[in-house]
Fold this sequence. Notes:
CATH superfamily: Ribokinase
Structural class: alpha/beta
Mean pLDDT: 90
Low-confidence stretches: none
Number of strands: 17
Strand content: 15-25%
Number of helices: 11
Order of helices and strands: EEEEEHEEHEEEEHEHHEHHEEEHHHHE
Largest sheet: 9 strands, mixed
CATH topology: UDP-N-acetylmuramoyl-L-alanine:D-glutamate ligase
Strand order of the largest sheet: 6-1-11-12-13-14-15-16-17
Radius of gyration: 19 Å
Shape: globular
CATH class: Alpha Beta
Amino acid sequence: MKTFDVITIGNAVVDLFLVIHDANASMRVDKELNELCVKAGEKIEVDRCDVMLGGNAANAAVGLARNGFIVGLAAEIGDDEFAQKIEHILQQETVDTTLLKKTENAASSMTVGINFQNERTLFVEHVKREHHFNFDNFDTKWVYLTSLGNEWKVPYERVVRYVKKTGARLAFNPGTLQVQARYEEIKNAMQTADILFLNKEEGAKIFNFQFSIFNENGKEAIKNLLKKLQQAGPKVVVITDGENGSYAIDEEGKIWFLDVFPATVVEKTGAGDAFASGFMSAILAGESVQQAMCWGAANSAAVIERIGAQQGLLSREKIEEKLKKADYLARYCQTG
Length: 336
């Protein structure tokens, strides 16, 4: 039986990133309408085309492995040439692929990202998967459960049963489909979770939480949302709010706020996964919730300075070096 520090469960996909020069005459961004406009029928020159590993579970697995933890990935992929690339990258990153399920005669899922004028637009394909993961022959301290495709309800329930049976701890980061299903469909996972990760919009959608106009009282609104989410079961709740920073409520009910780590934004894919893997790495290392927020913020800042979700992921040494250099905890972390 294999023993892991963390098993991440979710998607592993191929990310194809197109970087287009900001002055390209065939494209423009309508900021008022928040629309990317492309001239139909044009051949548009790209500056770079990068093919990378992506997917929430894969991103978290790589982030945790770079911090020195023994990590396995449970995900379902196809059996095409892209599947070989997924396996090769995971092996390079020392992520165990024993639980990786390859489906015969199936294609790999693809995401195409366009990076233009500091805006990221994603085209996401969800290949239908059954997600028949085998949870019988491994032991793990933590399970990190994140987004799955349309057939997600049965594997989610199996994960909850596994956690309750074995005493493993659960970190839960639901994806778009799970958030859209609202609380009743994911309540078992939420009630079982030791840590819940969401962004502000996701947290609000689960309970149809209504924010007033986001002004000087915005932090108070997020504090109320944190409390409401924690009452649903998870011991610790973490909410990220993009450039406005992050929030957490710990097991004692104390609320923490953390400003963003200064960064030069290149592309934002994987920022949330980087925050979560940095946060989880700190928790696994025995750090406090507030220090874990700092690890997450530093990791996230490094990722958005590079193309793709994984190029900027930091090791523990690099995170600590980054925090020490910026005196980050002393400058930014405060009780709510």
